[in-house]
Write a structure and sequence with these properties.
By secondary structure, this protein is mainly beta. It is built from 11 helices and 42 strands. It has an 8-stranded mixed beta sheet, sandwiched between helices. The two termini are about 20 Å apart. About 50% of the residues are buried.
Length: about 725
């Protein structure tokens, strides 16, 4: 009932399908790209064996600049370039955010912009109505304990996420120095919190092979991991992570390794996170540990950074007060940038990485105190350290080529004393960094910005009053909050004059942190773009080499004097025409027509940018489209009634490549009850087309649905055509 293109795919489906389970793994030998710089100092004559316990502590979704951009001596930034070319300051980051910023494969590539690092504002929620949520960073007082670890031990400012993608593939790199070609977290998991072999049957991840073809595959793999290397060498290990059904279980990377998830290691060595504290206190830590915290405590936005930091302190205190401290090395890092700005362009070592920088703090009695490493690291560097410590082979060329982090150690120094820290009293308001509304036309009201007030204490919190100043208003449902309860304060900006405006929201209650004061900022102006509200304009799917239908935006001057217009432009694969000229009279309006004109396949992000004499300049409208080189003349086929055990007449789908480059075709496959034949071969030249002939052979009565799936090198791969037929007597 299924057929494929003529090309053999054995050996092509990347390292995930190369695994052969033999007595000894050896080196897989993936050739992932040019070797990294070998500038790191290796262990040399130093006695690296002083370390007997390696702890790989992996947290979530923070870039280096968002955490340590203000750290003295580090390569940090306090301002960043946005997509229009303007440089803006990085605002103070709040304890908890409203959103989880876009940070998938496409988003991160967009933000990186071929090394320019200037399009983080185009990401999902990266700039909601002028708030620029991607351009934020913590101050020392916001993360005092993380800061203390960085000051007292070693901080790495050239540590990169291994792949420019989200959490799932990066976590795979922390255990295997590869992701098996996986580009994305699984879709179709709903609320199961399972990103692996026990995901729902409908779950798929996007996987790129060595030819650039993109598959949708079930997220369960069999490639060698560090656990396998240690098992073969008789070295102890444990993976401390949330259990199945708990939030945060999705970050348990060994769940995605079939021979671990469905083998004895899963019972013996993958254990609940809290067991780390018990094992440390009892002097029972294995040689290598991974520590993964629960979702609400792992720093993953929109969760509280304070609560996540407190949980980290709990675990570090347990280690430092244990008999294991004197022989331990902790690598505390964050798994990806989370969509937050970072100014350093990642090296391009292969088709997968690197991704933007993430923080790495090396905590050990032998870490050089106050040292800032400028040596290039990635997650495979930690695996390299483990391999050198225990005499293990490399898993891939990534860990084989990685710098080993030993430049951050002095194994001959007097061992550092434990740094036992005190957990903080966390704020009860989410928006500790203040609220910025961006530009708003005078006498109009902005959308609401929601501040959440959460009772994280053990006793009731009674809200006495909520007041607001300036050109801002609020509504709320806050009275008395029992432990774990929350209320919402909706804040609005309604400017009465032009220019920069400020105010404050003040909450008075019986909490120890009362009063909670949140600064408010916005800019009043006389320009309105209609529509302008986030998420802006979406052009959906547009074929490469063509231009979409235009969508209109009206620019209105609501002021009493003429508006000077310096520029109307688009960012990204979009174009515009306008009737605005160089000025707009008082009360006047003009039309800007925007179209998508993609030259790249996949999801595309852009901006319309208007530069003028108004105080709110630049005004922006976010743009989104999907480009594809694949044109299918049908999106669905209905075969009608067909007698059981007979075959229908064929129906044909025409496939065309509208792109400027050759389209690789990896697989054309039909589901049960349907068969296909095609003239497409292994590739389709620019402008070429081919035919796919499909028949329906029901083996039972009733309506039978299926799909034709085409897997290729287009950014929208795989493409599907819905198939329907009815089996009759």
């Amino acid at each position: 009932m299924r057929s494929t293109t003529r090309r053999k795919r054995e050996g092509v489906r990347f390292a995930a399908l190369l695994f052969t389970f033999v007595a000894q793994f050896g080196v897989v030998g993936l050739q992932l790209g040019a070797a990294q710089s070998a500038s790191a100092k290796n262990s040399g004559s130093q006695n690296i064996s002083e370390i007997q316990h390696v702890i790989f502590f992996v947290k979530e979704n923070r870039s280096f600049d968002s955490m340590f951009g203000r750290f003295p001596g580090a390569n940090g930034a306090t301002q960043g370039t946005i997509s229009s070319g303007v440089v803006i300051p990085l605002k103070r980051e709040s304890d908890a955010l409203q959103v989880d910023l876009g940070h998938d494969w496409t988003s991160i590539l967009t933000a990186m912009d071929n090394g320019k690092m200037d399009r983080f504002d185009l990401l999902m929620d990266g700039n909601v109505n002028g708030q620029f949520g991607s351009y934020v960073q913590f101050y020392q007082t916001d993360i005092p304990n993380y800061w203390s670890y960085a000051e007292s031990f070693a901080l790495a400012d050239d540590m990169f996420s291994s792949i420019h993608a989200d959490s799932f593939p990066n976590h795979l790199y922390t255990i295997a120095a590869q992701s098996g070609g996986v580009l994305s977290a699984p879709s179709g998991t709903n609320t199961s919190y399972s990103w692996g072999c026990d995901s729902p049957a409908s779950a798929t991840s996007r996987q790129m092979d060595d030819l650039g073809d993109i598959f949708a595959i079930f997220p369960c793999f069999d490639f060698p991991t560090m656990a396998d290397s240690m098992d073969n060498a008789g070295i102890s290990w444990r993976y401390y992570a949330p259990s199945e059904g708990e939030q945060g279980y999705q970050f348990s990377a060994y769940d995605a390794i079939n021979h671990i998830r469905n083998g004895p290691d899963w019972i013996q060595d993958v254990v609940p996170t809290a067991q780390f504290i018990t094992d440390a206190q009892n002097g029972n830590l294995p040689s290598v540990s991974w520590v993964i915290l629960g979702h609400e405590l792992n720093d993953h936005p929109p969760e509280s950074i304070c609560q996540g930091e407190n949980e980290t302190v709990l675990y570090m205190n347990a280690l430092m007060q244990s008999p294991e401290w004197n022989s331990s090395a902790v690598f505390l890092t964050w798994d990806d940038d989370g969509g937050f700005y970072d100014h350093v362009a990642p090296p391009n070592v292969d088709r997968f990485g690197f991704g933007p920088r993430v923080p790495l703090i090396i905590i050990s009695p032998y870490a050089m105190p106050g040292y800032i490493s400028h040596t290039q690291y990635e997650f495979s560097s930690v695996l390299k350290f483990i391999e050198e410590l225990f005499g293990l082979p490399s898993l891939t060329s990534r860990d084989g080529d990685a710098n080993d982090t030993t430049d951050s150690f002095d194994f001959n120094q007097t061992p550092l004393s434990p740094l036992v820290l005190t957990q903080r009293t966390c704020p009860i308001v989410s928006t500790t960094g203040g609220i910025t509304f961006g530009g708003q036309a005078v006498h109009t009201q902005s959308p609401a910005f929601t501040v959440t007030l959460t009772n994280v204490r053990t006793t009731s919190i009674r809200v006495s009053s909520i007041s607001i100043t300036g050109d801002f208003t609020e509504t709320n449902n806050c009275t008395t909050l029992e432990p774990s309860q929350a209320c919402r304060i909706n804040v609005y900006f309604r400017p009465r004059q032009t220019g920069a405006l400020s105010g404050a929201l003040t909450v008075v209650d019986n909490d120890v942190t009362s009063p909670q004061v949140i600064s408010l900022r916005g800019t009043g102006g006389n320009v309105t773009l209609d529509p302008y509200l986030y998420p802006g304009l979406n052009f959906e799917t547009v074929h490469l080499g063509t231009t979409s239908n235009a969508q209109a935006i009206t620019l209105i001057n609501t002021g009493t004097s003429a508006l000077s217009l310096a520029d109307v432009a688009t960012v990204g694969e979009f174009s515009e025409t306008n009737t605005c000229g160089s000025s707009l009279s008082a009360g006047g309006q003009c039309t800007i027509e925007v179209s998508a004109a993609p030259t790249t396949s996949g999801v595309l992000y852009g901006n319309l940018v208007v530069t003028d004499s108004d105080p709110t300049s630049q005004q922006m409208v976010r743009l989104q489209a999907t480009g594809t080189a694949v044109v299918l003349n049908r999106s669905s086929l209905n075969f009608g009634d067909v007698a059981v055990n007979t075959t229908s007449r064929p129906q044909t789908i025409n496939m065309q490549n509208t792109g400027a480059t050759t389209l690789n075709i990896a697989l054309i496959q039909s589901s049960t009850y349907y068969s296909e034949k095609n003239t497409c071969g292994n590739s389709l030249a620019p402008g070429a087309n081919c035919n796919i002939s499909i028949t329906f052979t029901p083996t039972q009565m009733g309506t039978l649905t299926g799909a034709l799936t085409i897997t290729d090198s287009d950014g929208t791969s795989p493409q599907t055509v819905r198939l329907t037929g009815t089996g009759t007597e």
